[in-house]
Fold this sequence. Notes:
two-stranded antiparallel sheet; 7 helices; LysM_dom_sf; chitin-binding; mainly alpha; Membrane-bound Lytic Murein Transglycosylase D, Chain A; about 10% strand; two-stranded antiparallel ribbon
Amino acid sequence: MFASSVVAALVALPFLAQSASAADCTRSYTIQDGDICDNISANNNVSTYQLAVTNPTIDGTCNNLQPGQTLCLGYEGQDCQTTYVVKGGDTCDQITGAHGINATMLWANNQQINADCTNIYIGEVLCVASEFGAPPAPSSLPITAIPAGATPAVPVVSTSSVVAATTSVASATPTPAAADEDDDDDLPFCDEL
């Protein structure tokens, strides 16, 4: 008797969880043919992070959208609708300055942004509200890497390029000894001052 009750409860649990989260959903969107996550986010004032968190069935590359499927855009009390679409050259400092918010609030509402803010990409939709409005992060945070095919807002310079540039500048700079040999004659000695 106990075992069958436990099995019945386990079978019913996903349906209870689904109906509880469906009841909390305040906005929804029906997927159309050709939709991609960033366009859905931009057109409906929902951040990329919020769309991912409220719809955990969407895969990390947003390749499993099915036309006719309904997505939740926000939960009651956790629905940031003040958004900004990232453009080329944007940095977190520029975004926070333009929207009059502090960096803490930007990261609180967009928990997929890494500490250096090097993973924002062109077309990504960020919550730029001045108060906390995003859903809490799940135990497995949505992907923090720039999606394949997306263009970083600020191109990342590879370390090998920096090393090569530093090496070429260093080899072109004259050594102090060579510079001193030619120019010392016109410098005063300490006792001449």
